[in-house]
Amino acid sequence: MEMGTALWSFVLVVGLLTITPGIDTALVLRTAALGRRRRAWGVVLGIQTGTLLWGALTSLGLTALLTASQLAYEALRWAGVAYLVWLGGRMVWDTLRRSGGQAEGADADQPVGDGMFPGWRQGLVTNLLNPKVGVFYVAVLPQFIPAGAPQFTTGVLLACVHILLGLVWSTALIALARTLRGQLQRPAARRVLDRITGTVIVGLGLRLAASE
């Protein structure tokens, strides 16, 4: 397979993966829709940092341990399950314990929670604790590295292509969420958004727990 053919084939595969709804899409949409634009971009950059790490580790052959060692995969899988259930459950719980619309309205105007670093950390942890991303890279990335090409350099280059597609898609998601910001500033709408997002995230965690 020539490099040009491999590159365009990889773009098609990861392009479809990028636009498939999942935990990344839910986090970016929810964060941006609440008006936390800086934190939303932090989440995006954290997710893409995780993608770069997965690509680099796969190119070095380290993520093959996930498929070779059942113990390593199970440890990472259950850590991911615990994190997703905690993250989604906390969103739902916070909506149940809020006392009233006045406190939420005040919070909506405050910059608290809109820092880029907390968002980056959340996106990075979410990505790294998803073992299916690592398994995907182990199974897919080597197939798009042409024979004779430098494995590490080519693998990182392909991961950067994935990151570029992710940034483009995230830009569209944040722009969409910004158009809905006015409606979602209402306390009732914010509660509904957090409950839906939290339930989806918990569901993804439970699905990860049930997967083989």
From TrEMBL:
GO terms for molecular function: amino acid transmembrane transporter activity. InterPro entries: LeuE-type. The chain crosses the membrane at residues 6-29, 41-69, 124-144, 156-180. It is found in: Cell membrane. It is a multi-pass membrane protein. GO terms for cellular component: plasma membrane. Pfam families: LysE. This is Threonine transporter RhtB.
